[in-house]
Structures are given as C-alpha cells and as structure tokens.
Amino acid sequence: MKKVLSLITVMFFLLLPALSWSASVRPGAYVSGFIGVSVPRDASVNSSQFASDGSMLNATDEVEFDPGINIGGTGGYDFGFLRLEGELSFKYSEINRITDTADGFRFGNPDGNIGVFAMMGNAFFDLHNPGPVTPYVGGGVGFATLHLSDTFGTDVTTSGPERIFLYPEDDDMVFAYQAGAGVGIALNRRLTLDIGYRYFGTSRARFGDGFDTADLRYESHNAAVGLRVKF
Length: 231
Prior knowledge:
Layout: H1 2-15, E1 28-40, E2 43-50, E3 56-65, E4 68-78, E5 82-100, E6 108-111, E7 113-126, E8 133-148, E9 151-155, E10 162-167, E11 170-186, E12 191-208, E13 213-230
Antiparallel strand pairs: 1-4, 1-13, 2-3, 2-13, 3-5, 4-5, 5-7, 6-9, 7-8, 8-11, 9-10, 11-12, 12-13
C-alpha cells in the first residue's frame, strides 16, 4: 500500500505545475473507472460446526487479511457542485491469519479468501476553487454480495500437522455503505484525474447452511486512482 500511495503523490506533484489554468464548473453526465488497493480491517468471525459425535462446536476467531485489489466504475451526473452517481466495484483479499480468540491459538497456513461485489448510490460535493484541483467529500449506500471461499487452517500442535476445515464457501447479499474524500485534477474540459479514499463497510453477512456456518462484518480502507470522462 505504501508503494501505491507514493506513486499517487508523485503523480499529483508532477501534474500540478502543468495544470495552471482554471477549470470551469460545467454540469453534465459522466462515466469513470478506477483501480487501487483495498486494505480490509480485522474481522471477528463466528462459526459453528457439527462434530462427529453430533455436538455443536462454536468458535469466534479474529481473521486478518492481506491487502487486495479495489476496482470499479461509475456513471452519473455532475450538477456543478453536487455529483450523483451509481457505482459498481469489486474488492478481493486473501486471508492472512486466523486466531481463536478463546485461547489465542493461531492456525498455520490459512487458505481462504473473500470477494466483495458492491452496487452503490453515491453523492459527492465538489469544493470548487479558482484552480484545477477540486477537493470533494461524500459517501453512499447500497448492497454488496460477499463471497467467502472454503477456508482451512493447519493445527501444528497435533502429532502430525492436521488440516482443519474452518468456514464454508457461500455468498450473502447485505447492506453496504461508504464515506470518503479525494481530489479531482482537471486535465481538460472533459477529463479529470480522480485520486480518492473510501471507507467501506457492510452489515453482518452469514455463510453456510444449518450444519456449517460462519458470519462476519466486512470493513475496509480503499485508495484508488481513476479517470472521469464528462460528456
């Protein structure tokens, strides 16, 4: 993530001297595309499994994720100082660490991932000024489909390392929200370079059937670079 943020900073300062003219406030429809990095927060995962003796095994784990990809696009209308848009985005991260919160046991070599496909309605307020760099703030609400893969971990405390099934593969659609800020750098009257940050979160998602289940709340920090094209 540090490399991505450094690249964004360098691009900003390289482009700023060349963009010395003032960008006019011009309403119109637009589309955009963006790509960046998603850094999920640690998640508390509650899981339940039936044991071979018919008893129910319940656990609560702290799950850590690797930074992943954040990609998507938008379409909307710029009213001059307010932009209303629809957004489609996808975030993906691998599971890095799983720790049982009851006893602090950490599973070895966790194998699993989570993908998030979001459909959002956003509103952003552009803080126009005499220069080409326009800060903005805003957020949105919508829905997200979370996909959790079959997830395994290794118990290295046994006589021979044992591969253990932890969470079932499944999808769930839940409420989603985001808030953030950024800057738009006008390249010309139609093109704007967008550098932004979003905090994204969902309500609790449930995966699995009545036998093997897991649930979690997904939250992530997201940075992206995009290009807006106004018609």
